[in-house]
Design goal:
oxidoreductase activity; 9 helices; 6 strands; two-stranded parallel sheet; single chain; signal; binds copper (II) ion
Amino acid sequence: MVLLSTFLGTCLTVVATTAAAPTGTCAAPKPPPYSDIPTPGHELTGIPMPDDFHRFQRIYQKNVRASLPSGNCTKKNIGKRRSWDELDDATRIDYLRAVNCLAAKPALTDKKLAPGAVNRLDDFTYIHINQTNIIHGSGYLLPWHRMFLWQFEEAMRNECGYKGHLPYWDNARFSEDPTSSAVWSGSETGFGGNGVDLHVEPKTLVFPGLTKPFKLPMPGGTGGGCVTDGPFTNLTLSLGPVVKPFIDKNNTYGYEANPRCLARNFDPASSKGVLTWANATIIVSSHSIGQLRGTIEGLWHKDSHTYIGGEGADPFSTTNDPAFYLLHAQIDRLWAIWQGQDLKNREYAIDGNRTFLGIPLDYAPDLPPSLATIDDEMDMGLGFKPKTKEGMPMTKGNFCFIYE
Ligand SMILES: [Cu+2]
C-alpha cells in the first residue's frame, strides 16, 4: 500500500481501488488503469504499475485501437495478450496442457539438421539455436522474436487446441521477489519453481560460431538442478546446452540428443533493482529505435534470462524452458508500447547490425559488419522465411494482438 500511494498518489488510489465516483479535491479523476482491472477471482499482486508507465501503456493501447480495422484485424477479434498473473486458472491450465501437448508431438525438423530434435518444442529450439548469432545483439532481435512468438502461439492453438492468447511475464511487478509471481508457482497453474540448489559456482561461458570469442559471465545462482514441482517435472529436454566454458567440438551447437530434465537457477540479483518499473519506463520512453535497442538489451533482455538461469540462461537453447515464451512476450510488449507511441514513425523502425554485435560469423569470416534492413529475410525454420518487415507491425499480416 505504501508503494501504491507513492506511485499513484492518493487521488488515483481512491479511483483505482473503488468503483465509486471520486470525491473531495479529486475533481478530474483519471479513469481506472486499464491493465489494473484484475480478472475476477484474481486480485493483482506485486508492485503496482506507476503512473508514468501507465501513461505510455494507455497511449499505446489507444493508438493501436484507433488504427483498427486493419485488414482482417478488428476491435472485435484482436487477440488480448495478458499477464500470466491476471489469467484465470482454467486458461493457465489449458496453456500448460498445450505446452506439454507440443512436447508429445514428433519434431518436424530434418534429422540431418538436428539429430537430437525429438518433439515440436525442439523444432522451436533448433531454429532459435541455429539463428542465435544473427537474431541477438542485432537489428533482427525484436522482429524475429515477434514472429517466433506468433509461430509458437499458432502451434499451441492449431496443433494443441489452446484457446487463449500468448501471456506475458510481467516481471516488473515482481522485481523484488520474482517467486511471488504466479508464473513460478509449483501448482498445476504455474511453470514450477527454482531448480534444486546445487551450489553452482559462477563461471564464464563462450559463444560458438563467432570469429571473435564472446564470453558470457554466468552468476552462481540459487538452484541449478532439476525443477521438482509444477507441470514440467516430466519434460525431457534434448537439444543444447550450447554455451559452455569451452567450445565443444563434438556437439558445437547442441544438435545431438542430450536427454535431461528442465533445470533452473534463479538469480535474484538479476531481478532486484534491475527488472523494475523504473527501467521498464526508461525503455518505453526511449527517443529512437537505437536508444530502445540499447535500453531493452541493457536493462531487460539479458537479465530476465539470467534471472531464470539454467536452461533459460543459455542464449542459444533458452527456449528449452517453456517460460521463455512469457519472458519474450514481455520484451515484445515493451517494444509494442514504444512503437505504439507513434505508429507512423516507429512501426517499421530498425537499428542494428546483421550479426551478434556485428561480429563476423565463423562461416563468413570476411564479411564486414553491415546494417539490418526491413527487407532482409529472416529464417524462422521449417522453410518459413518472411521479410523482417513482416515481423514488425502488431495488427497487419499474420499479427492481430494487443497487450493489456
Ligand atoms: Cu532469442
